[in-house]
Design brief:
Strand 1 and strand 2 form a beta hairpin. It contains eleven helices and eleven strands. It has a six-stranded antiparallel sheet. A five-stranded antiparallel sheet has the order 3-4-5-6-9.
Length: 376
């Protein structure tokens, strides 16, 4: 908050209180050095102009009070010199702080652009499914992390991936870009979902360091009533069927992407019945491993059963808000949630208001499906 003259209110209030105390006490220079608190405080929240204004005000009032109280000239000069030094130092610190804030804003802008390019917005309806996504990066300053997701309509039905790159923050961005790029290309070209996973595995084997890997769930909708799921070392998705929440465990354990050559194990294709009204929640371990002050994990299955509704967006909003409350407002790991729902035959899906970017995505996917085609 600032006064009409551009001076910040709180520093001016502090200067006014010190002046009032000096007027009431009439004790010479005892209180005048405290006037430096005004410009010092202004430097923490205001620009150089505000700091200088507060400093000039404090200096003028200090000189008037010193003369009024009959302070020795050399003592008054020393106090005013110290006040001027604090004001100039505060103005410089304020200028440097403003510069750092502008640099940070530019970094955030670049990170947001990178996130939009990698984790493209998912429209609320893709093919025959209602979809919702919530994503939070642990590196809040960067606003991008190591969790990844993508959902695309293809000639072989809707396909999607949710994964977690080892590490977090900007160092994981390169691996995220690699996985998503290979997935989006392979999903359009490979009729077999396992072949899509193999393409990603081969690319990671060529490009990753020996200690890097990616856990992921890749799923596809090849036809009515079924989903295909391939789990590569990732947390099992949760199937919501009626009032039940069931983990979708893989037929056999499989290593994360990028580590197959070390174990020789290959992932298995799990064909999952998926009827009208069913929902599938895919997530990363930043959700299930989030701890509260008592070091208790977030009970995702239990909370999903409580918050599930016919609107995936509303369900994820409730889960995400509760997750943040569980950890005290700040996640310590990247967290992603993707919820897929198959509407019943008698439902009319009402699209929520979409942003310009989301509308462009919806229009592009409509063109890809073509007239009369609803992503198999």
């Amino acid at each position: 908050m600032q006064l009409a003259s551009g001076m910040p209110v709180l520093p001016v209030l502090i200067v006014s209180v010190i002046v009032l105390v000096d007027l009431l006490g009439g004790v010479g220079l005892t209180w005048l050095p405290l006037l430096a608190a005004g410009p010092a405080l202004a430097a923490t929240t205001n620009g150089p102009r505000g700091v200088l204004c507060v400093g000039l005000l404090a200096g003028a009032l200090g000189m008037m009070l010193g003369i009024r109280d009959g302070a020795p000239a050399h003592e008054l000069a020393a106090v005013l010199s110290a006040l001027g030094a604090v004001t100039l130092a505060g103005a410089l610190a304020s200028a440097l702080r403003g510069r750092r804030e502008r640099v940070l804003a530019a970094v955030r802008s670049v990170a947001e652009a990178a996130q939009q390019a990698l984790l493209q917005p998912v429209p609320p309806v893709v093919g025959p499914f209602q979809v919702a996504v919530r994503y939070s990066a642990a590196a809040a300053e960067a606003r991008i992390g190591g969790d990844l997701y993508a959902l695309v309509p293809t000639p072989y039905g809707v396909r999607l991936i949710v994964g977690d790159v080892r590490g977090k923050g900007l160092p994981a961005v390169g691996v995220t870009a690699l996985v998503l790029g290979v997935f989006r290309e392979a999903a359009y070209e490979e009729p077999d979902l396992l072949a899509v996973v193999d393409r990603i595995e081969r690319s990671l084997a060529r490009n990753l360091r020996c200690d890097d890997f990616v856990t992921a769930v890749v799923a596809g909708h090849p036809g009515p009533g079924v989903l295909e799921v391939v789990n590569c070392g990732h947390a099992p998705p949760l199937l919501v069927r009626g009032a039940e929440v069931l983990p979708v465990e893989p037929p056999r354990p499989a290593p994360p992407l990028g580590l197959r050559s070390l174990t020789g194990e290959t992932p298995a294709l799990h064909v999952l019945p998926f009827a009208d009204g069913d929902q599938l929640l895919l997530y990363t371990d930043g959700v299930t491993e989030a701890r509260d002050r008592g070091r208790l994990f977030y009970p995702l299955s239990e909370r999903l059963a409580q918050h599930v509704s016919d609107e995936p967006t509303r369900t994820l909003e409730a889960l995400h808000d509760e997750l943040l409350a569980h950890v005290g407002g700040r996640l310590h790991d990247d967290a992603a949630l993707l919820l897929l729902r198959k509407p019943t035959a008698d439902e009319t899906v009402v699209l929520p208001a979409a942003s310009a970017t989301e509308r462009e995505v919806i229009d592009a996917q409509s063109l890809l499906r073509g007239p009369g085609r609803i992503g198999r």
